[in-house]
Amino acid sequence: MRIRKKGQIQMMETIVVLFIFFIIVILGLVFYTRIAKSSLAEKLDQYEELSKIQVAQIASSLPELQCSQDNIVKSNCVDLLKVEAATTVMSNNAADYFDLFAFSRITIYYIYPRTGNWPDEWEIYNVQPDDWDSKLPSYFPISLFDPFTQNYYFGVMVVEVYK
Amino acid sequence: MSKSRKAEIEIQFNWILVLVAGALIFLFFFSLVRWAQSSAEQETSTTLVTYLDSIFTGASVTKETVNLVEIPFKSVEFTCNDYTIGKSSRNIRNKIVFAPSRLEKEDIITWTKGWDVPFRVTNFLYVSSPRIRYLFFGDEGDEVYAFLRSNFPAELTADFNPSTIINQNNFKVRAIFVNTNIDEGFLDEFRKMDVIDATGLVVQGDLLSGDVEFLRKTHPSTPQEFRSIGSADYFSDASLLGAIFSEDNEEYDCVMKKAFDRLDSVAEIYSDRANQMYNNYVDEGDSRCEQAFAGVSGFFDLLIDPADPYFELIDNYEQFIFSNRDAQKASCVLVY
Question: Are residues B120 and B150 both part of a single domain?
């Protein structure tokens, strides 16, 4: 009877040790998962930031918009006649440009001086996802070249990436 | 006696339980380590692929630049549409990237060149490695050969008309025959290399246009010679360089198709712009500029979705240059 009890006690001990061990392992896993989740969220934020920078880089260097003189490109300058044409062309070929800009919105705002018959803003590209929480905007001051008068105006290019 | 045996069985059963539990714990930790290892590898390759994408984007928006990128990965595999590091792939998207099918370890060289037809359509990005050897053969007086000799990045490993060729254990070798006959005499030196790692290109044409034939070395067990795997056209030096950095005509054609898709949009924008400029000069009564812009829109229209884009580019190239020059002479806004 005594020996039998000893065997049972040993088995109980083993089961209790295993139980405690697995509780500790589960706690460890829960802790690890939480840390991994927050690190993943941080990484995702970082990737989204990188994607925003990429869209902005591409948008500000599009030959479809850039000012050029005999193929010499003027940096941070967009040709207003190209912009006018690009709003139609880029929306008609949205699938091609989706590869470049994904879910984002690119708008050019005319700021100063308020002369001529140019509109206040041009929406160059806008493809929204079905479900989005926020937009991450970036602002780039640019020159707007008016080929009719050969004058330069001041404007802003706004690149917003849907999140 | 029977009680004692039962107790013994219980004690032995306890040991079996410990053994089974131990094995399960061991298996659990083993699989946990495997999972952690594979997820860490996946995370690393995803991070590298993302950073590489940013590097390519940054490089592709600045023209005429050569960048050396040091990245600690085993290898990166390229196709026309995506590139892969480990298990992570990334879509190249609309970037025009010419690259060998595989790059190994450490250094990557990116080189950007504008595709001007003659107006800028986009930037071409060439990706390669100093561990790939380029052998150029041609006449020193040939304009294409001279262009390659003076413009090929010093950061890459290139030999121009080498007198003797010794295998330097590069993981890829590419021979480029510029308006000259194919020389297969050195191929024995690279016999052990895989057929996709020892390739060639025959260039027939000038800096504006021509055609290229893609070659591959024969299997190591057969006599060493080049065999043709296909041919293609090129337009401009940038497109020719694309053929040099691509390994086969399918990849080259696929990348060029993306470039021509982009040309459609850019030509449409320039056509619209030229048309508006023409109408503006008509309204203003500026006959010199009106004349300079007359019909220009139509030349751009010829480049929108043509049946043979290479033919249309070659046929209209000079017309664009003349139109731009005429606009410049008449002190008008330039066409491009």
Answer: no
Read off φ and ψ for residue B166, nearest 5 degrees. Answer: -115, 140
Instruction: Give residues 192 to 231 of B whose Cβ lies within 8 Å of A.
Output: none
Q: Centre a 10 Å sphere on the Cβ of residue B167 and count the other Cβ atoms it contains.
A: 14
Domain count, chain B: 3
Query: How many helices (H) and strands (E) would you count in chain A?
Result: 3, 6
How far is the alpha carbon of B171 from chain A, nearest alpha carbon, in Å? Answer: 32
Residues 6+ apart with CB under 8 A from A43: B43, B47
Q: What pLDDT shows up at residue B12?
A: 77
Q: Is the pTM of this model over 0.90?
A: no
Which residue in A4, A71, A79 is closest to B118 by CB distance? A71
In this predicted model, what pLDDT tens digit does every residue of A112-148 receive, in sequence order?
997 778 999 999 999 999 988 888 888 999 999 999 9
The string of pLDDT tens digits covering residues B137-181 is: 999 999 999 999 999 999 999 999 999 999 999 999 999 999 999
B positions 268-297 inside 8 Å of A (CB): 268-270, 272-273, 276-277, 280
Closest chain B CA to residue A73: B120
> Which whole number is the average pLDDT over B195-212?
96
- Does B310 share its domain with B205? no
CB-nearest to A99 from B93, B264, B265 is: B93
- Residue where a domain stops, chosen among B129, B155, B172: B129
User: A50 and B54: CB-CB below 8 Å?
Assistant: yes
A156 touches chain B (CB under 8 A): no
Q: Are B73 and B86 in contact (CB under 8 A)?
A: yes
Q: Answer yes or no: do B21 and A14 touch at CB < 8 A.
A: yes
- Asked if residue B334 is part of any domain, the answer here is no
Residues of B in contact with A50 (CB under 8 A): 50-51, 53-54
Q: Are residues B135 and B203 in the same domain?
A: yes
Q: Report ipTM (2 d.p.).
A: 0.83
Q: Is A2 helix (H, G, I), strand (E, B) or coil?
A: helix
Task: Select from B129, B160, B175 the last residue of a domain.
Answer: B129
Q: Is residue A78's pLDDT more than 70? A: yes
Say whether both B239 and B157 belong to one domain.
Answer: yes
Helices (H) and strands (E) in chain B, counts: 7, 14
Look at chain A and report how many structural domains it folds into.
1
Residue B264 reports pLDDT greater than 80: yes
- Domain extent, residue B236, equals 131-247
User: For residue B182, is it within any domain?
Assistant: yes
